[in-house]
Design brief:
Chain A is 78% helix and 2% strand. Chain A is an all-alpha fold. Chain A has one domain. Chain A has a two-stranded antiparallel ribbon with strand order 1-2. Chain A starts with a helix and ends with a helix. In chain A, 64% of the residues are buried. Chain B has 117 residues and is mainly α. Chain B is elongated. The model of chain B has no long low-confidence stretch (mean pLDDT 78). The chains are: A mainly alpha (494), B mainly alpha (117). At the A-B interface, α5, α6 and α9 of A face α1, α2 and α4 of B.
Chain lengths: 494, 117
């Protein structure tokens, strides 16, 4: 269902848009809202003790394609669809600046959602690859949507790097298939646990890791992130940064590494230390680079690199708090970065500029956007009681429990750096004296603000109710990752 | 063994082209080379010496256990999918390159540097 709905939407939109161009907005929003509803339904089903759902396509058990919905999937699917829905709402007015092709945008956006949802629920290795590529190609086209020079250049760079990453991933999958002769993830994990830890095994893991690293903007493959987020239309930046990187990169890697390869801290510390190393580098580099940026969206893009570093560090720590913190941070970052990018977009569409030096005095002219940005920044930087605070807290607790004090210190330090560069925007753009260019700016149109406000409310809700979110949503997902090899048992038994 | 090494060599050549060449179209071609290399590798994974193509021509073959003599069909199906994905990617890449040419009047990537950092 998760795949069928957005795919159907993607097909309907080009047809219906011939009738009435506004129809594409409505269809896209209905699709996105339906997906949100389905996500909640799925999560509640899992939460009330239902066994994870497994659906074999065409009824071919074990030689067919499996679709699988467990606690981790529930979390990821919720994130995709909530941010997707807010972005779709926001797009209704944001697209006014592009004179034509509204329906193209919505078609691509629903394709992106279809790809991401499909990735989250697929239980088959090649199926994952196909959905990663679907969402990747949709995102390349969306980044280039404005077809101005910058955007096309950024899209080309992004595309070459992203596709090389995808092809490396395909190479890793080919190697894996050569050894294991099966593509079903559960069966694969059983076959792999029977094989020894040969150098070939490590080579396959390394190849897959490089493929995923390119997709998620981990060091040293982060080069495409800044330009792509910077040039894409604002709701796409929100989707890209908050959702796409995490789902295709981090989730893909986690599902493969934890559930299929059965990596755990005890057995293979080298892998986890690698994650920590790269994560720490991402955190530091992204944070420092963000500091010196003068453009609103580019600053946010570098911040994303830094936050991915946090998530990798949390995963690398490997114990329950670390992984739970990383998953919580995926949620918190999706919400916060989504808010920030949408706020940046509304500022840009109302004032026509993104240079921080030119934006002053926004608090008076665009109060709702300013407050959305401020609250999003607080969550991003880890100020209580917002969502970001708890996610970073869990990561730090995980680091301390794992006796890596220097890591905890680094994480806390870079929270402060995050706060610093985000406050820079707040100070310069929002609270400073008015500038002439900005006095004509009005508040953004209602639907754009609505998208942002929903995300902000969610940030607050997740923050204040963090314990509920933790136990209901994040902890089961973390357990799925920790008890990696149970995945096979559950799929094949049930 | 030799075909596999050749595939990896092709992949490395493609990678070199993507990294070192300055013309946009050459970069796109380099990416296509990488794509071909990986697809070829994947198709070769399923190959068995002296085996038949996995097409059942007579019904008797289904009942006899001739599965050992067929080439593995799964990689072929997967490579088909991957080729289609590669096709759409190449199409998108080239159309982006064309659009860049329209704006910048050149294919040289050192000229197309509007984005810094």
């Amino acid at each position: 269902m998760f795949v069928a709905v957005p795919l159907a939407g993607a097909f309907l939109i080009p047809l219906l848009a011939k009738l009435w161009s506004r129809l594409s907005d409505i269809v896209a929003n209905i699709v996105a809202a339906t997906l949100v509803g389905l996500s909640f339904y799925g999560w509640l089903y899992i939460r009330t003790g239902g066994m994870p759902l497994c659906y074999w396509v065409g009824g071919w058990r074990l030689i067919g394609i499996a679709m699988w919905f467990d606690a981790l999937t529930a979390l990821i699917v919720l994130i995709i669809n909530i941010v997707g829905f807010c972005a779709t709402l926001y797009s209704v007015r944001y697209l006014d600046r592009y004179s034509s092709g509204r329906w193209k945008f919505y078609t691509l956006l629903t394709l992106l959602l279809a790809g991401l949802n499909g990735l989250a629920i697929s239980g088959d290795l090649f199926n994952m690859f196909v959905f990663i590529e679907i969402s990747a190609i949709a995102s390349y086209a969306l980044v280039a949507f404005g077809t101005e020079e910058e955007e096309v250049e950024a899209a080309f760079k992004y595309m070459v790097l992203g596709e090389v990453g995808g092809t490396v991933l395909l190479f890793g999958i080919a190697l894996l298939y050569a050894k294991a002769s099966t593509l079903n993830l559960a069966h694969l994990s059983q076959v792999l646990s029977g094989m020894g830890r040969t150098p070939f095994y490590w080579f396959v893991i390394a190849t897959l890791l490089i493929g995923f690293a390119i997709k998620m903007g981990m060091e040293p493959f982060h080069a495409w992130l800044a330009d792509a987020h910077f040039s894409a239309p604002a709701p796409i930046s929100a989707m890209l940064s908050g959702v796409f990187i995490k789902v295709t990169g981090v989730y893909g890697m986690c599902r493969l590494m934890f559930n299929v390869f059965g990596i755990s801290r005890a057995a293979t510390p080298a892998f986890f230390n690698l994650l920590i190393a790269f994560g720490a580098v991402s955190m530091v580099l992204g944070g420092l680079l963000a500091f010196s940026q003068n453009d609103y969206k580019r600053l946010l893009a570098y911040s994303s690199i830094s936050q991915i570093g946090y998530i990798l560090v949390g995963l690398g720590v490997g114990n329950f708090w670390g992984i739970a913190g990383a998953l919580f941070h995926i949620l918190a970052h999706a919400l916060s970065k989504g808010t920030l990018f949408l706020a940046a977009g509304s500022v840009e569409s109302q004032t026509g500029t993104r240079e921080l030096d030119h934006l002053k005095g926004l608090e008076r002219t665009m109060p709702l956007t300013s407050w959305a940005h401020i609250l999003g920044s607080f969550s991003m930087a880890g100020v209580p009681p917002f969502a970001g605070f708890f996610s970073k807290l869990f990561i730090i607790i995980g680091a301390i429990t794992g006796r890596m004090y220097w890591l905890a210190f680094l994480a806390a330090l870079f929270s402060a750096v995050t706060f610093a560069y985000l406050t820079k925007v707040v100070n310069r753009a929002i609270f400073a004296r008015k500038d002439e260019a900005v006095t004509q700016a009005k508040e953004a149109p209602a639907l754009m603000v609505l998208g942002m406000v929903i995300l902000v409310i969610l940030i607050l809700a997740v923050g204040i109710g963090f314990w509920g979110v933790q136990t209901q949503l994040v902890a089961p997902a973390a357990k799925v990752l920790l008890n990696g090899l149970d995945y096979a048992r559950l799929v094949l038994g049930g | 063994m030799i075909p596999f090494i050749a595939c990896v060599l092709l992949l490395l050549i493609g990678l070199y082209v993507v990294i070192a060449k300055r013309n946009l179209i050459k970069i796109a071609i380099g990416f296509c080379l990488i794509e071909y290399a990986v697809n070829l590798f994947f198709a070769l994974v399923g190959f068995k010496k002296g085996a038949l193509a996995p097409i059942i021509t007579q019904p008797e073959q289904v009942r006899m256990s001739v599965t050992r003599n067929f080439v593995d069909p799964i990689p072929q199906a997967l490579v088909l999918t991957a080729i289609v994905i590669g096709l759409s990617t190449t199409a998108l890449m080239l159309s982006l390159a064309l659009r860049l040419y329209e704006r910048y009047k050149t294919f040289d990537i050192s000229e197309i540097r509007k984005l810094k950092g």
